[in-house]
Amino acid sequence: MVMALPLLTAFIAAILALSGKPRGAFGWSLATIAISLAWLFYHATSKLDIML
Amino acid sequence: MPIRAFDTFALIGLSLILLVAFYYQLVLGEFPCPLCLLQRVGFVVAGVAAILNLTHGPKPAHYGLMLLAAVVAGSASLRQISLHVIPDTGAYGSALWGFHFYTWAFIGYGALVTYAGAMLIIGRFDDAPPPMSGAARLACWIFTAIIGANVLSALAECGLGPCPDNPTGWLWSK
Predict the structure, then answer these.
(1) Which CATH architecture best describes the domain B3-173?
(2) What would the mean pLDDT of B93-120 be, rounded to a whole number?
(3) Taking CB atoms and an 8 Å limit, are A49 and B140 in contact across chains?
(4) Is the full-model pTM beyond 0.90?
(5) Which chain B residue has its CA at the smallest distance from A39's CA?
(6) Distance set, CA B136 to CA B6, B16, B74, B93, B112 (Å)
(7) ipTM here
C-alpha cells in the first residue's frame, strides 16, 4: 500500500499535460482516481461507531 | 471573462489550499493521515484537470475529471467527518475558523463540483487551444512543483508502505 503512489501518478499527469501530451495526462489522471478509490476502500470501510 | 481565466483562478485557489496544508504540516507539525492524503489527491487531480484546460483548451472531459476527483476525495472527507461527528470522539488536527480541515475539504469539493458544473453550462468548447498567458503558465508550473513536493513529503512520511492512522513525524524521526 504505497500511499505516495496516487500523488506520483498525478505528478506524472501534470508533467505530461505541460509537455503537450494531453491523452497521457488524462490517462494518468484517471489512474490516479482509480488508485485513490482503491485506497479509499482500504482505509474507509471499517465499521463506524454511529447509527443512522 | 474567458473560461481560461476562471481556470487560472481555480488553479491558484487549489495551490493555496495545498500550501495551507503544507504550512500546517511543516510549520505546525500536523502530519497528514491516510484519509487526509487522499483528500489532497482530490485537489491535486482537480488541479491537473485545470492544467489540461489551460494547456490544451477547455474540454468537457477535463471538467468530468474534476468532478470525479471531487466525488472520490469528497467521500474521503465525508468518511473522516463521520469518524468524528459523535460528541467526545475527538478530532484530527486543529481547526481553522471553527472547522477542521476535513470539513473544509468537503466544502472545497462542493465548490469544485459547483464550479465544474457551471463551466460545463457556460463554457464554449472549441478544438483550437488559445494561447496561454504568462500568469497561467506560471500557475501551472507552481502547481506541478507543489505536487512534486507532496510526492516527496508522502514518501518521507510513509515510505513505500501504508501511512499510520495517526502519524506523528517523518520516517527518520521514529
Answers:
(1) Up-down Bundle (1.20)
(2) 93
(3) no
(4) yes
(5) B38
(6) 10, 15, 26, 33, 19
(7) 0.91
